[in-house]
Amino acid sequence: MEAFKMTQDLTSTVTLNNGVAMPIFGLGVWQADNASAENAVYAALKHGYRMIDTAKQYGNETGVGRGIARALQDGLITRDQLFVTSKVANGDHGYAQTTAKIEGTLHRLQLDYLDLYLIHWPVDGLYVETWRALEDLYKAGKVRVIGVSNFDVHRLQVLLRQGNIVPAVNQVEFNPQMQEQEMRAFAKQHGIQVEGWSPLGHGSAMGDPVIGAIAAAHKKTPAQVILRFDVQSGVITIPKTVHEQRLVENADIWDFALSDIEMAAIAGLDKNERSLWYPAFGWYGSDTDFGMATQKWPDSPADYDA
To answer: Which of 42, 58, 127, 304 is catalytic?
Structure first.
């Protein structure tokens, strides 16, 4: 994995540990229904985005696929310019399940391959087997890059010991108040690129006076300063929105840079506190309500058309 370089625009990339170039900024679509996801994806690609992040768990792969198909048909982008991520749902863990269920994801997305496929949550007792399935999907050309999401250092160590391929990406919560210092240091040591979901901390950091003062100095919004901090920290960043104006604003972070002093000031806001609900999920076992719900989800594309 190459060292992070100062970024210039939405086409900027970082080279992963298998040599694939991944955009450092993209669109997340968590909590969007299919119609909203379709429109957001189309608008994002129209405005220069090149990376879209979804998951079977989100229930909107069909909408994302429609947005991509429209953009391709209208000539906004070509497939080789696009980087699409999806994730293995909790109920799809295990070698046979993972190997089979990717076909539903590809069908819903209207794609022949994924650019990045992640284990969404480390379901204990199954994630090593699931990782072996991802390794074989990678070798078969179904995916260009494989990685994980929401893995701590211990579970990354397990994969490094028992797997054959080092994960290229670990997608975790990253924002000024949750900076994953231990995991990021471990990832850097082993050539694993960190990608950050909830880069704005669910809005919790935008009212901080440190952020506000830096935003005023640069004539930017607090959100733009936070997103610049995320990217400048070397973290691939995927803010979620379904509003066209907001996705344009989110991407307007390439005409300024934070100084070392400003970066240090924002780094000092780290509370090691997660902004969202998932601590109640424990370490993501399939015996929780969340895990059981995903196991019940069908795979027919029609079942994702709500």
So the answer is: 58
